[in-house]
Design a protein that fits this description.
With about 90 residues, the chain is mostly helical. It has two helices and no strands.
């Protein structure tokens, strides 16, 4: 296996991880920001207040985008095994 092949596999792994994990992280960030603004406006300083909205937003994202995430990860895994078999021939 050459350095270019290893870099290609690493790039694909990182891109797929960001693509699949991005919507969940973005939803969690936005809900956390909204809850933080609400807490600042009302001066409620409860640390656990943001957990329930974040959990619900993550669950909603998983329900809505779960099939797409599974397809993306399946395509990446199939691609990975195909590429590994091709790289091993060299």
């Amino acid at each position: 296996m050459t350095e270019n092949q290893i870099l290609y596999m690493t790039k694909e792994a990182l891109a797929t991880g960001i693509l699949v994990g991005g919507p969940i992280l973005l939803a969690s960030l936005l809900v956390g920001l909204i809850v933080s603004i609400f807490q600042a406006m009302t001066q409620i300083q409860e640390q656990t207040l943001s957990f329930i909205p974040k959990i619900f937003s993550i669950a909603l994202i998983l329900v809505l985008l779960g099939p797409w995430m599974i397809r993306t990860m399946t395509a990446y895994t199939i691609n990975l095994f195909t590429d590994l078999a091709n790289f091993a021939r060299y």
